[in-house]
Amino acid sequence: MDNFFVVILVALTGAVQFSLEQNMRSNINTDTDVKGPQFVKTRFWLYTKESRETGQEIFVNDDESVINSNFDAKNPTRFFIHGWSDRATSISAVQIRSSYLDRQDYNIFTVDWNNNGKSTNYVMGRINVNETGQQVADFIGFMEENHGLNLNATFLIGHNLGAHIAGIAAKGFKNKDVPINTIFGLDPALPLFSINDPESRLAIGDAKFVETIHTNGGQIGFQAPIGDAAFYPNWGRRQPACFYESDGTCSDQLVTSYFAESLDERYEYLGKECGSYDNIRDEKCPTAGTAHKLVKMGGDLVDNTIAGVYYVPVDEKYPYVVTNKTWIDNLVK
Ligand SMILES: *[C@@H]1O[C@H](CO)[C@@H](O)[C@H](O)[C@H]1NC(C)=O
Ligand SMILES: *[C@@H]1O[C@H](CO)[C@@H](O)[C@H](O)[C@H]1NC(C)=O
Ligand SMILES: *[C@@H]1O[C@H](CO)[C@@H](O)[C@H](O)[C@H]1NC(C)=O
Known about the structure:
Its main location: secreted. The protein has 333 residues and is of the alpha/beta class.
């Protein structure tokens, strides 16, 4: 009986994914100058407290470009890898790098893998994920070997396709003595990725700790947990701030605002432990079998011992964080 149900579910999921892919194919922008993997040229822009607004471009294997920048190996490092049809200078990238630099000094790299937002072609972006991830890995390796980048103080933050680019980049370091510390996968992209092919996507084990935040599960984003800990604002479905959305892009985008907000020391997004992914899908948090722990989503001082799935209540307007702990504690038992 259970098996039968799973087969039906897989078939339905496949059908939904197929129609979405058809839809994305029909939206291919033929006027794009972004082509296959051999044309990928990933660029890296550094922001620090001293250069908050103006990025300094650093080139792989170009020591001068590092020496002439404000890169400081003593500071922690964060990479932000933008999502599909987005760019390294978009509002989400600015929000995230500013939220970090409001806390303290960091080396913040924003990664441009799409020729400054030239292409809206999802399929091409997907095809290029391996090559882009490899170029990010080459850059990280160069910074580590030549300029003292500390992988144990390095986090990768990737949004939709960027989440998988982060995963591919980190895989190259996962068997080293010191792997990359943390990856945040912000609404990791679903179409043309498979739960059964962890080598081609963000997966548990790519870094010491992998956290995912799902805001558009089953449409643009994965709904199933693929890291150590998975957080589900509004059950990972359409977000309350996205009243009229039909295509999922608003909910998928909103995760970058949640994440930027979670870096603000005034706020704490609390997730409530819900035991299993089945519970999340059923939108319930039953009392039996779970401690209902309240755990912080996102943020920067990561507790990398957390695991499991968490429901996160969110508000429909900015600031989206829900701060009343008593209220959260009384929810959905
Ligand atoms: C890595 O960083 C963590 C803190 O996030 C620290 O507890 C640990 O000792 C560090 N490991 C190494 C090998 O430096
Ligand atoms: C990406 O690389 C992985 C590992 O080498 C491979 O298994 C996978 O087929 C590649 N995917 C694509 C789309 O090239
Ligand atoms: C928090 O939620 C509880 C339970 O719903 C409620 O009684 C209390 O008034 C709320 N506190 C604030 C500050 O809104």
